[in-house]
Design goal:
The chain is an alpha/beta fold. The chain folds into 2 domains: 267 residues, Rossmann fold (3-Layer(aba) Sandwich), CATH 3.40.50; 190 residues, Glycogen Phosphorylase B (Rossmann fold). Strands 1-4-3-2-5-6-7-8 form an 8-stranded mixed β-sheet, sandwiched between helices. Strand 5, helix 4 and strand 6 form a beta-alpha-beta unit. Helix 5 packs parallel to helix 7 and helix 17 crosses helix 18. The radius of gyration is 23 Å and the shape is globular. The two termini are 33 Å apart. This is Glycosyltransferase.
Length: 469
C-alpha cells in the first residue's frame, strides 16, 4: 500500500551524530485530538532531551496533511508521516479505523525492517502507541523494540478498569488481582446497558494493551490524580507508570480557517469582554455529548440557567434541520439577551476557558475538556452521561475538589432545580470559593509542570532515559 511523508528530513540525516539520536515511533488513535496530544508530548520529549530524540508520528495522510499545514513551528525532530489509505464514510470509528491503520502501516514497518537489516541507524528504536491500538504489539515484536502505551483518559478510569474485576473477565486477561485497598470503591464502575457494554469492551482493550506494554504514559499530572496513579502502580507493579500531562490539542490545530468560525470566536470574545471577571457560566457538551441530550434535557438546562439569574455562554452544535434548530424553550434567547449568549457552531474552547470572565464550565466531563478547564483554573459543573465521564466527574468532585456533580435521575436527567443550585453554589457560597481556590492552585501547578523540577518534567526525563537505553 502506498504511503506519503509530509515531514522534513531528520535533523541529522547523515553522519556519525545520528547514532546518538534515538528514534521514537508514535502511533496515536487516528483522530485529530489524539494525534495532537502526541504531537504535544513529542515536542516536550525533543525539548527536554535537547535533540537526543527524534519522533515519527504515524497516521492516515487524510488526518496528517491538514495538521502539517497548520503546525508551522513544529520542531524539525518531530515528523508527521502520512499513510495513504482510502477511507470510506464512517471508517474513522475506533474499531474500523484501527483495522485500516494496521493495514496501511504494513509497508512502513516492512521498510523499517529492511533498513534495520541493512545496518541503517535511522529506524525506530522505541514505540509509543495509543492504548486502544492493541495491534501495535506486532510492530514491537517484528522490529524487536520496546513498546509503551499512551492513555488519553484519566488515571482514575484506568485504575477502576484494573481494579473492578469487570474487565478481567475477558478471556486471556489476568493482568492484576482485585485491589482490596483501592480508594475508589464508592465510584461508579461500569454501566449495565448497551452503552455500558461498549464501555466495558473499551476497558478490556485498554487492559489487554497495557498487559503487553512495558510502561504506560497517562495524559494527566501527579498533583491532580495522585491517588489514582498510586493505585495503578499497586495494580501493575511491574509496569512503568508515568503521568506526563496535560498534553492538549494545539490551538493552531483546532482554530478553523473559515470566516464563519472566526466570526463565532469573535462573537464569543466580544460577549465575554463585556462581563465581569469569573462571572460567566460556559456550557458546552461537544458534538458527542449533545447526542445524549434530548429536548427535555435541554429545556431543563435552559430553565435552570434562566432561574439562576447568572450570565452564560452556551455552545450548541450546528443544527442539521430546522427542527433541530428549535431545541430551546420559546423566547429563551430573547428573554436572556442581556446576560446570555447562545452560539451554534464550532468555537475555540481554549480561548473561552482562558478568558478572565469565564467563571465555571458546565460539561459532560470528557477528559480532554477536564484538563483544559483545570489547567486554566476554571471549576466544573459535571453532567456526565457515559462511563468514563462518570469516573472523571466523581473523582474531580470528591477527590480533586474542583467540581460539582449534578444529581441525576431517570438515566442522566437533571432537574432545573439542581442546575440552578449548582450555579449558585459556584458564585455565592463558601463551597464555591473553595472550588475556585483549588482550581487556581492546580492551574498554577500545571503552568510550571513541564519546567525543570516539575512532576511531568521529571517523568519526561525518566521516559527519555528509557528511550535512549
Amino acid at each position: 500500500m502506498a504511503e506519503m511523508l509530509f515531514s522534513r528530513q531528520p535533523a541529522c540525516s547523515s553522519g556519525p551524530s545520528c547514532t546518538v539520536q534515538a528514534h521514537m515511533l508514535m502511533v496515536p488513535q487516528p483522530t485529530v485530538l489524539h494525534i495532537s496530544a502526541m504531537v504535544c508530548l513529542a515536542e516536550h520529549l525533543v525539548r527536554v532531551s535537547r535533540g537526543g530524540i527524534r519522533v515519527t508520528i504515524l497516521s492516515f495522510e487524510k488526518l496528517i496533511f491538514p495538521l502539517v499545514q497548520k503546525l508551522k513551528n513544529l520542531s524539525p525532530d518531530v515528523h508527521l508521516h502520512g499513510l495513504v489509505c482510502p477511507l470510506k464514510s464512517g471508517e474513522l470509528s475506533v474499531g474500523k479505523s484501527s483495522d485500516r491503520l494496521e493495514q496501511a502501516a504494513e509497508l512502513y514497518v516492512k521498510n523499517c525492517m529492511e533498513r534495520k537489516k541493512a545496518g541503517h541507524q535511522d529506524v525506530p528504536s522505541f514505540l509509543l502507541s495509543d492504548c486502544l491500538q492493541v495491534w501495535t504489539t506486532k510492530i514491537s515484536t517484528y522490529l524487536n523494540i520496546p513498546r509503551y502505551v499512551m492513555a488519553n483518559i484519566s488515571a482514575c478510569s484506568i485504575a477502576l478498569a484494573l481494579a473492578s474485576g469487570e474487565v478481567r473477565g475477558h478471556e486471556g486477561i489476568s493482568l492484576c488481582q482485585p485491589c482490596e485497598k483501592t480508594k475508589f470503591e464508592k465510584l461508579p464502575l461500569l454501566m449495565s446497558d448497551e452503552t455500558g457494554m461498549k464501555h466495558k469492551k473499551l476497558l478490556q482493550d485498554i487492559e489487554l494493551s497495557v498487559k503487553h506494554a512495558e510502561g504506560i504514559v497517562i495524559n494527566t499530572f501527579e498533583e491532580l490524580e495522585a491517588d489514582a496513579l498510586h493505585s495503578i502502580r499497586q495494580l501493575i507493579p511491574d509496569s512503568n507508570v508515568l503521568a506526563i500531562g496535560p498534553c492538549e490539542t494545539s490551538v493552531q490545530i483546532i482554530k478553523w480557517d473559515s470566516i464563519q468560525n472566526r466570526e463565532l470566536d469573535t462573537k464569543c470574545m466580544d460577549f465575554l469582554k463585556n462581563h465581569p471577571k469569573k462571572s460567566v457560566v460556559y456550557i458546552n457538551f461537544g458534538k458527542s455529548g449533545m447526542t445524549e441530550l434530548n429536548q427535555r434535557h435541554i429545556h431543563e438546562l435552559a430553565q435552570g440557567l434562566e432561574s439562576s439569574g447568572e450570565r452564560f455562554l452556551w455552545i450548541l452544535p450546528l443544527p442539521k434541520s430546522d427542527e433541530e434548530d428549535d431545541v430551546l424553550p420559546e423566547g429563551f434567547e430573547v428573554r436572556n439577551k442581556d446576560r446570555g449568549l447562545v452560539v451554534r457552531g464550532w468555537v475555540t474552547q481554549q480561548d473561552i476557558l482562558s478568558h478572565p470572565s469565564t467563571g465555571v464550565f458546565l460539561m459532560h466531563c470528557g477528559w480532554n475538556s477536564c484538563l483544559e478547564s483545570i489547567s486554566r483554573g476554571v471549576p466544573i459543573i459535571a453532567w456526565p452521561s457515559l462511563g468514563h465521564q462518570l469516573h472523571n466527574s466523581r473523582y474531580l468532585a470528591h477527590k480533586a475538589k474542583v467540581a460539582i456533580l449534578l444529581p441525576q435521575e431517570d438515566g442522566f436527567f437533571v432537574s432545573r432545580t439542581y442546575i440552578e443550585q449548582a450555579i449558585k453554589i459556584i458564585f455565592t457560597s463558601e463551597e464555591g470559593m473553595q472550588l475556585k481556590e483549588k482550581s487556581m492552585e492546580l492551574k498554577a501547578t500545571s503552568m510550571i509542570i513541564f519546567d525543570e523540577g516539575g512532576s511531568s518534567y521529571k517523568n519526561l526525563e525518566h521516559l527519555i532515559k528509557v528511550i535512549r537505553a
